[in-house]
């Protein structure tokens, strides 16, 4: 089946064509305009999608070597995400579905992030534990099969990506903060400053990052002006605290579920130090998506769309935007 995927949940305008579980094209346009503001401005994001979506969809079709008339279905992100930006993608997808008279399927962005791992490792088998770490979510899932998920733990406050983004703002680095902190801390000492790990007790599988962010803020107010720590050590130590938090909980989840297979999903999965730390300290099969499938993209949308359509799951045309859509 030939499926067009459309993703506009935040600040990436993306389109992709998937056919028989192969990605034929994957076009992502990131809205760098938000770096001027240190975070995504929803109104600007919607306008940018509106401006470029048509072009991005055309490029995805051209790059696949197919024609508009070859499309057999459309998959589009329904949520979670920003209401206005989601609406841009959904309205576009509905128009196309009506015009071409082909089915449409509403996709959960979180589920798509998890299934992006199948794009990199087609032999991945259920069940597995998934650490989902994005800009808006930090969750541990026990994935037993497609449509069979149980939540093991999640963040009680900020998401891991948000901790990177807010930390970068405090350190006066750019946006998005994850890659900026990673770059700034590359040759730094991760043990220079002992930022809090917030384990939330011995058995908890939940996360908390807001105290860590506050401790960075206090640290900067107290120490930075006298120049006693180079920025590379601060960035590296802060990154290490986020990663330790993730590692501690993932290890617990592995022990609890007795799983021997884990996948990491979402934008923070692109972090090199996270990858190294988990690989060196967890004696299980670990899967990370290819870098281009970690951060927001439409390949994961078209791929999951095709998977669902092959199970005869599709949507009525009157489905609505779900900014707070959960996985279960
Ligand atoms: O999955 P994603 O693209 O969008 C959401 O669904 O939220 O994740 C974006 C998040 C941002 O917070 C960004 O700072 C973080 O992923 N991120 C990273 C890296 N690349 C992106 N965090 C740490 N290290 C990275 N290399
Ligand atoms: Zn995402």
Descriptive notes:
The protein has 9 helices and 10 strands. The protein has helices at 42-64, 83-100, 109-120, 160-170, 177-184, 210-223, 231-257, 272-281, 299-309; strands spanning 2-7, 12-19, 22-30, 73-79, 104-108, 128-133, 138-145, 148-154, 261-265, 285-287. Strands 3-2-1-4-5 form a 5-stranded mixed beta sheet, with helices on both faces. Zinc ion (ZN) binds next to helix 3.
Shape call: globular
The averaged pLDDT comes out at: 97
Give the CA-CA distance, first to last residue: 27 Å
Low-confidence stretches: none
User: Any idea what the radius of gyration is?
Assistant: 20 Å
Percent helix: 40-55%
Topology as H/E string? EEEHEHEHEEEHHHHEHEH
Overall strand count: 10
Largest sheet: 5 strands, mixed
Compute the number of helices: 9
Bound compounds, each kind once, are: 5'-O-[(R)-(carboxyoxy)(hydroxy)phosphoryl]adenosine, zinc ion
Strand order of the largest sheet: 3-2-1-4-5
What percent of residues are in strands?
15-25%
Based on secondary structure, the structural category is alpha/beta
Annotate the secondary structure layout.
Blueprint: E1 2-7, E2 12-19, E3 22-30, H1 42-64, E4 73-79, H2 83-100, E5 104-108, H3 109-120, E6 128-133, E7 138-145, E8 148-154, H4 160-170, H5 177-184, H6 210-223, H7 231-257, E9 261-265, H8 272-281, E10 285-287, H9 299-309
Parallel strand pairs: 1-4, 4-5, 6-9, 9-10
Antiparallel strand pairs: 1-2, 2-3, 6-7, 7-8
Helix pairs in contact: 1-2, 3-9, 4-5, 4-6, 4-7, 7-8
């Amino acid at each position: 089946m030939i499926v067009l995927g459309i993703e506009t949940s935040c600040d990436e305008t993306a389109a992709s064509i998937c056919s028989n579980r192969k990605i034929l094209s994957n076009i992502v346009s990131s809205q760098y305009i938000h770096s001027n503001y240190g975070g995504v401005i929803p109104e600007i994001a919607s306008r940018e999608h509106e401006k470029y979506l048509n072009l991005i969809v055309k490029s995805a079709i051209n790059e696949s070597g197919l024609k508009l008339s070859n499309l057999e279905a459309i998959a589009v992100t329904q949520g979670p995400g920003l209401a206005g930006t989601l609406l841009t993608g959904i309205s576009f997808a509905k128009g196309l579905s009506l015009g071409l008279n082909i089915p449409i399927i509403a996709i959960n962005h979180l589920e798509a992030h998890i299934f992006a791992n199948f794009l990199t490792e087609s032999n991945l088998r259920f069940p597995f534990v998934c650490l989902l770490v994005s800009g808006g979510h930090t969750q541990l899932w026990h994935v037993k099969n497609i449509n069979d998920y149980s939540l093991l733990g999640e963040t009680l406050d900020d998401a891991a990506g948000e901790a990177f983004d807010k930390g970068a703002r405090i350190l006066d680095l750019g946006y998005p903060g994850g890659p900026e902190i990673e770059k700034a801390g590359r040759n730094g000492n991760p043990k220079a400053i002992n930022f809090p790990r917030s384990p939330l007790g011995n058995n908890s599988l939940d996360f908390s990052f807001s105290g860590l962010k506050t401790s960075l803020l206090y640290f900067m107010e107290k120490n930075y002006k006298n120049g006693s720590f180079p920025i590379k050590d601060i960035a590296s130590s802060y990154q290490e605290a986020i990663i330790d938090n993730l590692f501690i909980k993932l290890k617990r989840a592995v022990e609890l579920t007795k799983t021997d297979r884990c996948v990491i999903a979402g934008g923070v999965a692109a972090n090199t130090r996270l990858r190294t730390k988990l690989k060196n300290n967890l004696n299980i099969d670990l899967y990370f998506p290819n870098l281009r499938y970690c951060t927001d993209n439409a390949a994961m949308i078209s791929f999951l769309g095709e998977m669902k359509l092959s199970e005869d799951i599709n949507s009525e045309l009157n489905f609505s935007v779900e900014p707070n859509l959960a996985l279960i």
